[in-house]
Amino acid sequence: MKQTAGAGTLAGLAGVAGCLQGEASGNSTSMGSIANLQNSYWLSWEKGYLEAAEALGYDTSVQTNDGNVTTQQEQFDTAIANNTDTIVGQTYTNAASISLAETCVSAGVPTILAVTLADWYTPQDAGDEYVQFFAPHFVNHAYTAAKILFESMGGEGGFVHIEGNRGTAPNIGRNKGVDLAMEEYPDIEMLGDRIQGNYIRSDSRDAMADKVSQYGDDIEGYFGQNDAVAIGGQTVLEENGIDVPIVGIDAGEPGLARIEEGTLTASVSGMGPWQAGWSLVKCHDFLNGHELQPAERMMAFNAPVCVKDPEEWTDVIDTLPVVDAAEYNELIFEDETPYDWEKMSVAESGEDAWDPQIDLQPMSLDDLKEVLDWKEADRPDGYSMADAYTDDAAQQEISQLYTDRFNNNPLKQ
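RE: above sequence
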């Protein structure tokens, strides 16, 4: 049973830092928890969340925390006190995932907290109500973007890599992906060490200014850890008359516009709308009696890479789908997204008819070490992981299940 320490309705959430969004018709309630609504990624996340809520009949509240862990915890506590049926979103730090997940589990409120997770911590460690964790396959995504960059450079020359926030799984995984691509291109050289751009334009401008002062015209390519980093560094390159191939990650509206104008070469999608909608759908399934199999509770997805001319890259890139940036922009950011949220749901569509509408695969222990950078040296003394992550048969069963169920990719229509 849920805790009922507080009284009131979802309207009480307005007293906590954040922003209250529109409602869908229905009796169930949900909260979406994200950092802000100040960039296209989070705006697209909100869009998918609200669409899925409307399709499934949930009243909604989107709460923003500006990266403040205390604020996010307060918002979770208030939502639970107000009898919210489910909470979905992302935690700002790895460590915060533990307290937020366990807050939901102890209250009996199903949750999915995606992308960010504490090391050596799985949904099984929290409890049944931590329905699932999933994340982009950070390594595959960066590897693909780097390969496009290196091909655009003609397979040789020096490039700058400005990273995001060190010590986080997305940043570490993306660095690994770039390193893997470099192994395939021995004539490609990274110019100096990576500098942090912290996923924001202003810091990335400062970082690129340092690189330009050191390397100038020797810069022949640029890898930005996300689109904000790519665009921030790009402006400095432009100011110094340096015109080189540039890639990013997120495929937000600003990045897609630059791909269309030819100043950005490619960007891998962050799949914000799908992430939000899938999270609510799986919690909806849990509330309706469908529990995921143990090996299904840690997943990674592969997203498309957006380019100006997909035909130029389809024979080069085989790790991720290659899509037209203009068409992707129209599908994701204009009008409704192309996802069938009810079709994603086992409860709504049935065991033999649901479709994730994306390439989504289970993460084994080896995958967790690669994608999330879990190290054996950091494993807590006496920690015992659920058998599903080392059970090859269980992993293969779920992998085949999601392969069989993935019958429609709306971004390829």
